[in-house]
Amino acid sequence: MGIWKRALPPEVFAKNHAATLPALLGIRLVEWGEDYARATMPVDDRHVQPAGILHGGASVVLAETIGSVCGVMALEEGWTVVGLEVNANHLAAVPKGDSVEAVCRPLQLGRSVQVWQIEMRRGDGRLSCVSRLTTVVRQVRGG
I need a labelling partner for 6 at 20 to 30 A (CA). Which of 19, 29, 77, 80 fits? Predict the structure, then answer.
């Protein structure tokens, strides 16, 4: 189980996000490793800018989604995370019809702050975006 304190099977991720932005964009959690998680997102009409390439904001949604999920899964029950800052460096265009794969790993797993690095690669394996998500750890309050 590595760094993970909880389990989240991909089918549970899909069910939990069924009516949310990640589902609308087709984001799928596909793998948990010892210290990483992997997610995918297609690049179709929902994701592109007028030039026919992946919109940078869609990359940020993918990064924040997988980073936030990882943040929660790295904590004991009763704790959660809230995003504090997200950034993204767009390195290579991803054309409509392709897909992106995101791999998320921790840079810092502190008691109050976590930092996650997300690398996104297009279908040919080229690095298309590098993102960093900083989260604040919070105790879940009532109900």
Answer: 19
